[in-house]
């Protein structure tokens, strides 16, 4: 259990770190390289700083949505892969919550520039909030699949 949690936490910190920890060096370096490319091209670090400082509209204006749309899939794939390689593949259908989170979070990115009930949540916080919804739906879907099969 400890190794799986450690892998998830390192992967949350930066996609690819847990793969390096799990001695999957090629995969780890590749994930880090892809993360850096998407991060730089999408202007992600600037968006994070602006969002946390309360400059949501500026973050929306500086976001390159065509690039940051890739980030949730990369992020949740890296987390799932790290979990699986750390011994988490013993539970069936564990890819479902991670894939669901990637999908719902990508939708969160797509709608993050929109005003919802008078508030623009922005390209950082709406995807973060969406990820919890995606995980919850994914775990529910996994439970349903397991009860049927």
Structure description:
This protein has nine helices and two strands; from the N terminus they run ααααααααββα. It has helices spanning 2-13, 17-21, 25-42, 44-52, 56-62, 65-68, 71-85, 95-111, 122-148, and strands at residues 115-116, 119-120. Strands 1-2 form a two-stranded antiparallel sheet. Helix 3 (25-42) runs antiparallel to helix 7. The radius of gyration is 16 Å and the shape is globular. Keywords: Membrane, Transmembrane, Transmembrane helix.
Largest sheet: 2 strands, antiparallel
Which structural class is indicated by helix and strand composition?
A: mainly alpha
**In what range is the share of β-strand residues?**
under 5%
Task: State the total count of DSSP E strands.
Answer: 2
C-alpha end-to-end distance: 26 Å
Strand order of the largest sheet: 1-2
Q: What are the segments in which pLDDT stays under 50 over at least 5 consecutive residues?
A: none
Mean pLDDT score, rounded? Answer: 94
How many helices in DSSP terms? 9
H/E series, N to C? HHHHHHHHEEH
Q: What sort of overall outline do the alpha carbons produce when their principal axes are compared?
A: globular
Q: Give helix % range.
A: over 70%
